[in-house]
Amino acid sequence: KTVLQLLQDFGSARLRDLLAQLNYDPLNEPVSRKDWPVAAQAVLAQGPWLYGRAAGKFYVIYAQLKADKLKLTEERLVIPQLLQQYPYALFVFSDKSQTNFHFVNVKWEDTQKRRLYRRIAVGPYERLRTAVERIDMLDIQKIPAGLFGITEQEIQARHDEAFDVAKVSKSFFDEYKRVFEMVKEAVKGFG
Question: What's the whole-model pTM score?
């Protein structure tokens, strides 16, 4: 319920509240763009910021893009630069007006050869049910801790699971099937 309330009126200031709700340690540190390609720097309205951390080395990084609309190609210019310094991370992008947001998870496939980019969109015209369910899965306290606590790899694995498109699709079709069967039973007797 709290995650839903935070996402209904979301902005960069609410991102800090959301991360606190999900039990990430707060951060407010700029990310260096030294040695970044010009193209990657040019798409940003301002430098990326570390907004949260968990297990010492898993980061939440926020970046505001210059464009009025979120563009996946621009996000793909920035993320590889960030991954060099922060291999375990959740990336949050906003448009210039900080109205629309993408939560981006990068999952490595084929033993680190290929990156899969998965997004959750949050904004005034987005439906939030799936976003709330998936983002709520990122709560650090809901991740089982091992003998030595939670590692950044375990947090990354939870993020990979939360952003898994197949699980979201399966959940949707399971619910669709359930509702279909209810309706089918309700209309028996009609020709």
Answer: 0.81
